[in-house]
Specification:
The protein is an alpha+beta fold. The chain has 2 domains: about 60 residues, SH3 type barrels; about 170 residues, no CATH class. Helices cover about 60% and strands about 15% of the residues. It has a 6-stranded mixed beta sheet with strand order 4-3-2-1-6-5. Strand 5 and strand 6 form a beta hairpin. It is flat, with a radius of gyration of 24 Å.
Length: about 240
Amino acid sequence: MSNSNLFLYIGKPIKNEYGRIIGKVASFALTPSGKFEAIFVEFGDGQFTKQPMDTLKFNGAEVTFVSKIKNQAIILCDQIPLIWRKDEALKDLSDKRKLSQELYQELHTSFTGVLALLKKEAQVIIDEASIEIERCREEITSLAYAIANLEIEHEIGKVDEENYKSAFTLLQDTLKRATSERTDFELTKSRISSVLLGESQDSMQKTKTYAEQVNVAQKLPEPPVVVYVKEVGKAGV
């Protein structure tokens, strides 16, 4: 993408992966050679931050903010089993006496150290995913109450049909996004937890990769989530 095209995104809204507008493009940071290094984002709460370029995707007129948690989880779910396999291969070579004990110990210590760091990073991702899951659950609960109260006010005639339909559609769309977001974070937490528990590589190869599972989950139609406090015919939906 040319520099001029990227600058055309200044002022454009930024959505997360679930269609929620979270901010807008403020500007870009470039290296002396003209390479795009980072993007300045103004979030909806007024916070102004500098983000790496790989945290956003530019597709046509749309700008999408990519979840840092999901991206890091994908990387860790690849790296941890890879380092583990290398350490196992190293042990096999040592057992076959293809390596000196001194060289084996040096490489083994290196792999063990890298694994320990990666596992710490993975635990941080698990904790962050748990926080996001709880946030989504609280939002879903609040939305359910909002829909229930809307239904009640409509039922007793305090909300007219036009405003009722508009509000109901808005709440339902938001509820679907929150549900999809929670599902993604739960999948992220489950997958990386499995890696930390030492799931064997043979077993992992028989299942779809983490990224494939996320894509499949996002393509599945969302189950309707509707809260009713009266008969369907009377609600007009």
